[in-house]
């Protein structure tokens, strides 16, 4: 019952992926995780309601799914942290670029003003 990973292959990872694409993939992965979590919760509630239906295969399958959910929680947490770190770095770089451009424009304007006064 474990879903297949939608992660890019190692060769695909050499091409930079935009932050927007990364967020879309993370959103889709989280939606998949939520659907599987809801399915498992429903299954656990049914098992409590009708414990006589439980057999070794059902218990084994529930354990496999539970382990997958726990592992996926850790992965999603790490992916969210990575996206957050990347967003902050890109935002900081954008702000630095904006400030540098603004400063450059001010210096250029000051230089033009000085030149026009000397003429």
Please summarize what this structure is.
This protein is mostly helical and about 120 residues long.
Overview of the structural elements:
By secondary structure, this protein is mainly alpha-helical. It has one domain (18-118). It has helices at 19-49, 56-118. Helix 1 (19-49) runs antiparallel to helix 2 (56-118). The longest helix has 63 residues, at 56-118. The mean pLDDT is 82.
Which key features would you list for this structure?
119 residues, mainly alpha, 2 helices
Fold topology:
Blueprint: H1 19-49, H2 56-118
Helix pairs in contact: 1-2
Number of strands: 0
The percent of residues in helical segments reads over 70%
Spans of at least 5 consecutive residues whose pLDDT stays below 50 are: none
Q: Helix/strand/pairing class, anyone? A: mainly alpha
């Amino acid at each position: 019952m474990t879903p297949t990973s939608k992660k890019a292959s190692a060769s695909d990872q050499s091409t930079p992926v935009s932050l927007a694409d990364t967020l879309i993939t993370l959103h889709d992965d989280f939606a998949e995780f939520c659907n599987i979590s809801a399915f498992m919760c429903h299954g656990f509630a049914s098992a409590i309601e009708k414990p006589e239906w439980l057999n070794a295969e059902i218990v084994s399958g529930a354990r496999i799914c539970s382990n997958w959910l726990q592992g996926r929680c850790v992965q999603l947490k790490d992916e969210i942290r990575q996206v957050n770190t990347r967003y902050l770095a890109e935002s900081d770089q954008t702000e630095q670029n904006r400030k540098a451009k603004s400063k450059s424009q001010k210096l250029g304007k000051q230089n033009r003003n000085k030149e026009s006064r000397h003429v």
